[in-house]
Amino acid sequence: MSVSSKIEDRGTDINIKHRLIDILFLTLCGILSGAEGWEEISEFGKQKQTWLKKFLGYDNGIPSASTIKRVISLIEAETLLNSYINWINSIREQQDLTIIAIDGKTLKQSYQNSDDKLTALHSISAYATEEGITLTLTDSKTKTNEIQGVLELIEILELKSTIITADAMSCNKKITKAITDKQGDYVLQLKATQSKLLAEVKAYFHKIRRDEPNLIEQGYHENIDAGHGLIETRQCTQLAISDWIENAKEWTNLNSIIEIVRIRHDKKTGEQTTQTAYYISSLSINPEQLNYVIKRHWAIENSLHYVLDVTFKEDSCRIREQQATKNMALFRRASVSLIKSSGIKGSVKSIVKRCGWNHDILEQVVFGKTFVG
């Protein structure tokens, strides 16, 4: 069932004057051009009315801020998400997406009342790190309830020949089973939430370094990056799973463990820091691949969450109606996906500004050849 028919089924008269497709298109283009709330989306429409009419009717002019708010609040988030997933799946048929990062993000100003900020929406995104596309998202009641949300995402996604990466919050036996059942692979960060397994993994690396250093050498890869005044060395050591690690038997398709040592050198101050992290994976020994996959996981923080906050001001957004909050979160992620896939050079922030200034740029982002239906 279409989004439009869903709203009409609910008996509202808001579509009599303004068609749903007009409001959805206006909202998306407004966000792509830097509009941050209902008032700014409506004002964008008034300023760009001639351009908007190239594509849709707007026979009764541009809807008011209150009308846009009511419409977006009435759309069932699940219905809009299903439409988004169908669109993304049509794109995935054209591309080879192999690494999907899963991570949660709390929309800080979305709480229902100031006395209970725990009601803020915590969204969980599945992000194709190579293409910069948000594949889908869901929400959980709190950050501590993230596992169920991740399981829901896994159920939605096509995972064959795909590597799922996630932080320690998602390092869970149910999640490894769910990924394996859908023919995917996983690389999950291991922290104190799985204290027994973590202790055994650390002890095993110590044992192998002492007793079988040749295995350390065989499973080692080093990568050095320089930029922004920093030199970062990433040392990846991967070992095949062993019966010596007793807790590993409880995890589905656990084939290897990984140690990542990050050494960061500040060229200006001379300061050097070292961080060590551990991971579990269904992948076999290929330390160069694992070094790359683990590094790419952080694209969901640097290229999605950071962009949502800095460019689209998501953390500052005070929209608190639950349906509207979810729907606008999806609009923002769709905007990032469109920009990343447009082929236009430059940062997301610069492209958003150019969309607001230049109709040709906005058209290329919205109707780019990758996304033509």
The spatial strand order of the largest sheet comes to 3-2-1-4-5-9-8-7-6
> Can you tell me the CATH architecture of the largest domain?
Alpha-Beta Complex
Query: What is the level 1 CATH name of the largest domain?
Result: Alpha Beta
Q: Level of helix content?
A: 40-55%
Note down, in words, how this protein is organized.
This protein is of the alpha+beta class. The protein has 2 domains: 1-75 and 343-373, no CATH class; 84-306, Transposase Inhibitor Protein From Tn5, Chain A, domain 1, CATH 3.90.350. Helix content is 44%, strand content 20%. The protein contains 15 helices and 9 strands. The chain has helices at residues 3-9, 20-32, 38-47, 49-52, 65-74, 77-92, 146-156, 173-181, 195-211, 213-218, 287-297, 299-310, 322-340, 348-357, 359-366, and strands at residues 99-106, 122-128, 133-140, 163-166, 185-190, 220-227, 230-240, 256-266, 272-281. The chain has a 9-stranded mixed beta sheet with strand order 3-2-1-4-5-9-8-7-6, with helices on both faces. Strand 6 (220-227) and strand 7 form a beta hairpin. Helix 5 crosses helix 13 (322-340). The relative contact order is 0.13. Residues 1-15, 108-112 and 114-119 have low confidence and may be disordered.
Give the helices and strands, then pairings.
Layout: H1 3-9, H2 20-32, H3 38-47, H4 49-52, H5 65-74, H6 77-92, E1 99-106, E2 122-128, E3 133-140, H7 146-156, E4 163-166, H8 173-181, E5 185-190, H9 195-211, H10 213-218, E6 220-227, E7 230-240, E8 256-266, E9 272-281, H11 287-297, H12 299-310, H13 322-340, H14 348-357, H15 359-366
Parallel strand pairs: 1-4, 4-5
Antiparallel strand pairs: 1-2, 2-3, 5-9, 6-7, 7-8, 8-9
